[in-house]
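Bug: token stream looks shifted between consecutive jobs. Job 1:
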Amino acid sequence: MKKALILGLLTLTLVSCYYQGGGILTPDEVPPATEAACFPGAYYRKAVSSFDKWTGIEGIIVLPENAVDVRRWGTNGPLDNFSIYMGGRAGNQEVDAGLTWEITRDEFGNIDYVNRAYRPFWRVTSWNNAPAIKDYYWYPGDKVLMRVEAVDTGRLRLTVQDADPNPKKSFSVDFEASMFGMNIPTQFKRVNAIDQSGNEGKPVQPTKAKVFGAVWEEVYLLRGDERYPMVPSRFTDMKCPDGGFFEVKKLNNFGGESINIFGTPEK
């Protein structure tokens, strides 16, 4: 019954396209790498595809709860942050796009460093955010659809919206990504992370921050009008800096997975 409801929702909310079922790779698919090197600076779980004729990635996620480490505080708030995003790589160009736990603005337009929300962002060569308005704020427990897809040569589209047939909140933006396009070997990813401010490229800093309760209900790699479940046979499994900081559980054969991340592993 639950699967039927999820699939019914997908027919209304996800792009209309042909479904390639199961986890067995089709003859024309490029298998993913068995392993990949971690880029230091954050605690993150990345599922990343092969370089193939993928045109995008989409999924439905229940957004996680989080807790900061009060000992790690900077001028503008916690030094640990939380993000759930997609993106990919084409040639030597890396793209991140999705949601990050971010400062908001109150009804008077004043910056609110305390009452944060998950807000859309995208990064190619520079960082960009959706406007800081409540129409683009999502919170732990919200179920959202996220999609990153090539829409033309050199252009990607990020979509974030309520995972509902009639979404009340929806954000979409097209942005330049010069190396991406159609029929180009491209890698796509989904990432859950505890990011650390000012620490990119450095060893992770000890923290008691944690993010828990993230549930990817379904995730698909896109190839034009076809959808392929992003199951373990289609991705390289990365837990960085090492697996001891993560609790990951496969939920179904549609790319479903639950993820908890602990800066200090819990016994």
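Job 2, same session, no restart:
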Amino acid sequence: MNPPPKKTPPPAAAASSAPVAPVAASAPEPAAVFRSGFVALAGRANVGKSTLVNRLAGLRVAIVSPKPQTTRHAIRAIVDDGTSQIVFVDTPGLHKPTTRLGQLMVASAWDAFLDSDVAVLITDATRPGPDGHERQFCRKATEAGKPVVLCINKVDKVRKETLLPIMAAFAAASDFLAIVPVSASTGFGVDTLLAEIRAHLPEGPRYFPPETSTDQTERMLVAEIVRERILADTFEEIPHGTAVEIEAFEETDEGGGRIEGDETSGRRFVRIQGRILCEKETHKAILVGQGGSMIKRIGTESREAIERMLGCRVHLDLRVKTKEDWKNDRSVLRDLGYGPER
């Protein structure tokens, strides 16, 4: 039996004298544009600015109360989605000031507006159209060349057919970038509002680390929690004649421990001492209550909220002091951190 014939390999391809075209290197993909900026939330008192800023931040950074002029400081809430960072500034409500504190609050609101990249004018869907304060805001925005988005809040409280006349009334008052109906309490329309704001932000850097939600210090947040409980528990008996100052904030290892379910906090125990300032002795008597019942209630409710925020046990000591006409006292206002003297 003869062996099978050997297979002859195919002839090598003849070398070509034509030059070989170089392989073009793929162009690098352009870097994603990062947008950032400051956005002032402005509007009349009690239109839901603080509820909206809490919804945007995903946590409670501003106190909420049905009483007007609750927000006194310009509070920042940071929203970072990886491609943009929006620094929202919740400003005191627009109103006609009657005290030095009121003047500082209004000045703070206008300063935040002028320093912003975009402004959001928040109004209330239960009202028919712009009032004097809102029209003044629109005029100043036009004069300053400031882009403004109109946010119509509380749309969950009205019928849909009532929105069109409100939108038309505001559109006639100013040239807004967009008009966005939202409900800060339910979250309706908030994503649309964020998208409109992002679309008009300039390219820029991150101003805060991406995990940051607010620039408020823990002392400031604690003071606001106590003030919120005062507003809630004293009803109409105490007007906006109170302020809260945190005089001591000390972390210790004594007693207590982490709150159950919170494994992120390394703290064990925090001692806090606060001073509640009021204008009249009659206000002090209401704040203290019969046999200390009211101050105990305010302290207990505040402590529970503070423990949830800090993730550890808290001892809270609150004392009430009377200082007549403190809202017109420059040194007191400076000590409390209000206004440009801060």
